Amino acid sequence: MTHDKHLATSLDNGPEDAWVSVIQKMDEAYADLVRYQVEVEEKNLELEENKQFFDSIQSSMSDVLIVCDHSGYIQRVNRALEFLTGSVGESVIGTRFTDLVESRFLQKVDSFLNQIRIQPVRDCELELKGVDGPVPLSMNCSPRKNRRGRLVGMVLIGRPLGELQKAYIELNNTHAELKLAQERLVQSEKMASLGRLVAGVAHELNNPISFVYGNMHALQRYTARLSLYFDAINEGQSRESLKAMREALRLDKLIRDLNSLVDGTMEGADRVKEIVNDLRQFSSTQESEKKRFDLTHVIRTALHWIIKESKHPVEVRETVPDGLFAFGHSGQIHQVVVNLIQNAVDAMIDSHEKILTLNAEQVAGTIEFRVSDTGSGVSGENLSRLFDPFFTTKPVGQGTGLGLSISYGIVSEHGGKLEISNNPTGGAHALLVLPIEESPVV
């Protein structure tokens, strides 16, 4: 109405003004059309670029992509599906997703649409009908909704299990190799520690063996005397002759000594057996079952070996009560204790005063074992690196740098704690904390 009135007004004003007004309006309308056309072309170009972008992403995906409507009919697939199934995309569009699934998995996938209304489906293993046979996939299924939040379909993404299984196998192989390398390092460090103790152990074995050897020589002499006496009895010699022989051979004293000789020999043999068992327990590569063990015996055995082997006199101040029991592998903890004591003794080689202090006590549900020395201590920059593999403050050729690292791993695996610090009065201080009972499984 307004436009007609304006045109009528223009006509009243004269025909020339009317035509000018019409032309102006046509120019404005044409300009609007041109602007709209440019905007449409820009939108079309943007849509085309977005389509190419998403198509390129779908084409480069190694995982299978299937887009379905709310009834399970396929609306879109990517090249990964075409490659695995040998089907052209256009041939599967409009078909049901279940047509691609192996029959024994149909019951599982039929419930997808109902499940995704509650929560997405994660890592569901199934098989698609592949060009070279069944294709195992790990399938994830998520809901697809419109702007109003209504469910309009589902998006399925599947990763071929062959790749995952290959990755798992490689990961397991790598883990096995690392575990084997770790076991070899542990055993290597154990043998290195054992090598340092050989001299002390040899001396320790020499005492009971010498005792047994001496007793057996005495028993051999006693056996010869008894044989002479029994031969005389068998020959029927007179009572007076046998009595004289008995006194000459001192058989009464011999008989009284027999029990003590046998007891001493058994004691020496038991001591040898005990030392051998300690060595076998320390050097064994087999991981025995964890159980309660006598930590006091472990500490004193390790201390005895190291002090016997030490080339420098060391004053030992030990406060370790009898009957301290911890829970774990006694052989592994023996290795840790040997390492801590050996490090303390080594740290005092150049010290004027060599005092090794050992303390142990039960605190709540743990045993705390402390080792202190009067060495030069550990520098501040090295304290944080003591448990790093292959780090050592000893001269080249005198340390592997694995002892404390392996000990830290052993103690951690036992649910304990291992700390090293400097004493305020000088020297280093090591704290080993071990449980006395098995930790409950949570």
UniProtKB/TrEMBL annotation:
It catalyses: ATP + protein L-histidine = ADP + protein N-phospho-L-histidine. GO terms for molecular function: ATP binding. Residues 200-438 form the Histidine kinase domain. Its EC number is 2.7.13.3. It is an enzyme of class 2 (transferase). The keyword Ribonucleoprotein does not apply. It comes from the Bacteria. SMART domains: HATPase_c, HisKA, PAS. Keywords: ATP-binding, Coiled coil, Nucleotide-binding, Phosphoprotein. The keyword Metal-binding does not apply. NCBIfam families: sensory_box. This is histidine kinase. The lineage of its organism: Bacteria, Pseudomonadati, Pseudomonadota, Gammaproteobacteria, Oceanospirillales.
